[in-house]
Design a protein that fits this description.
Number of strands: 0
Number of domains: 1
Strand content: under 5%
Largest sheet: none
Structural class: mainly alpha
Length: about 200
């Protein structure tokens, strides 16, 4: 996948969706609560974690990283330099773990947010990929010059590849956020008074 991602923006977007929307929830759900409790036993660590793992804080942290890496200069640097590319992916995964924590937390010390807060949070989380996806789709010019100079699979032009990348970020990315939001809504709607999320 990494080889394709270096020559195809659309394949790179598929890779990013996997790293941001699929891997982090699986990591969170795989952490035994006992291990988390052990790590959070220290009062100072717990206080910092309780401050960071809030919807507002993780929204700011995650989207600063997400949007920052999609600035053309940063993105092209990640394509040209494998160490920077690895850093991009590590920061995507770590910040995405933060962003999914309020939704999927199993830690009593840092519980899931309330359904109302989560629905609002997920709606706002869907906006940055929607805006960037729409920009990639409708820009009318190639935003990332690194992709102009490479031979792409399937004979696609750099412009067509970028438009497909934008649609991948915009539609499947947005659908995942709205899918989780919908599940939370119906669970909340069917259990009035229950403060649990997904």
């Amino acid at each position: 996948m990494d080889t394709l991602a270096l020559v195809s923006l659309s394949m790179h977007m598929v890779q990013h969706l996997i790293l941001i929307l699929i891997v982090p929830p699986l990591i969170i759900l795989s952490i035994p609560p006992e291990i988390g409790s052990l790590l959070l036993r220290n009062g100072g660590v717990r206080a910092i974690a309780q401050t960071i793992f809030t919807p507002v804080a993780v929204f700011i942290i995650y989207n600063a990283i997400f949007v920052g890496w999609h600035v053309p200069g940063n993105y092209d640097l990640a394509i040209r330099d494998q160490e920077v590319h690895a850093l991009e992916h590590v920061t995507f995964v770590l910040s995405a773990i933060l962003s999914w924590w309020p939704v999927y937390s199993q830690q009593p010390e840092i519980p899931r947010s309330t359904p109302g807060m989560l629905m609002l949070f997920l709606f706002f989380m869907s906006l940055p990929p929607t805006v960037i996806g729409a920009l990639l789709t409708f820009a009318g010019y190639v935003i990332y010059p690194s992709y102009e100079a490479v031979a792409r699979p399937w004979g696609m032009t750099a412009q067509a590849d970028q438009e497909l990348a934008g649609l991948i970020m915009w539609l499947p990315g947005g659908l995942i956020y709205f899918g989780v939001l919908t599940v939370i809504f119906f669970r909340w709607f069917n259990r009035p008074g229950d403060d649990s999320a997904v």
